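The protein record quoted for completeness.
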Amino acid sequence: MRFASFEISGHPTYGVVEASGHFRPAPAAFVRRFPDLKSVISANALGELATAAQASGERVAPEQVRLLPVIPNPGKLICVGLNYKSHVAETKRPDAEYPSLFLRFNDSLAAHGDEVLRPSFSERLDWEGELAFVIGKGGRHIAKEDAFEHIAGYACFNDVSVRDWQKHTHQFTPGKNFPGTGPFGPYLVSRDEVPDVTQLQLETRLNGQVVQHASVGDLIFDIPTIVAYISRFTPLSPGDVIATGTPGGVGDRREPPLYMKSGDVVEVEITGLGILRNPIGLAA
């Protein structure tokens, strides 16, 4: 199943996304029990949501909906850096023994279709297409062999980076947290729809031209390793989001460098997870 958070006539809600692209919003009684998609996941009620949305009979056309980030309010938003050998090679960094992690703020998230704004004081706005997953069952000290049981589903993510601010120091935080620079969507695909995540292909396109292409199977630290490592130092909770890293092909490491500018369109596509598309604008 595919699930999404969205607005209808300015009112935030959530529901099921049909293969046709139409939306079936959660009924009002269901929303009173579960105010957002994160609470549905926390209650292990995605199946119940699908049944209730179908039974309600309400069906909304795509043009009547404004998408929101899949989970607009994760308790934790953790990103893995340098997690494809092709990206490690282009950055000329040594191999790492442990995953490199950094955090994003919730207000850095954006939705499919949102305009991502380049700050006027930087020319170095870069793309980073990634696979993200959402925690479905919380836990601490999760064993690798149990990791997938803790995942609710998968979505596309674009870890858009303001490179000069990212490189002011060894800490990535400033360049990764400009408002609205983390597109996340268009929807969440439930784990049962993805029998082997390592077979997924990730592709990033800038104005229709392929700039990144890789298999999720090429991750240095695979998803079970990521879940086990993170859950050793912090408890994971339903609705937490983890982005798994980007492959080689980022603009900052090209010769000459290539950055996104106003009027560009960036897309991240992952097999079966849809296309996450965002125009680029300029912040006032």
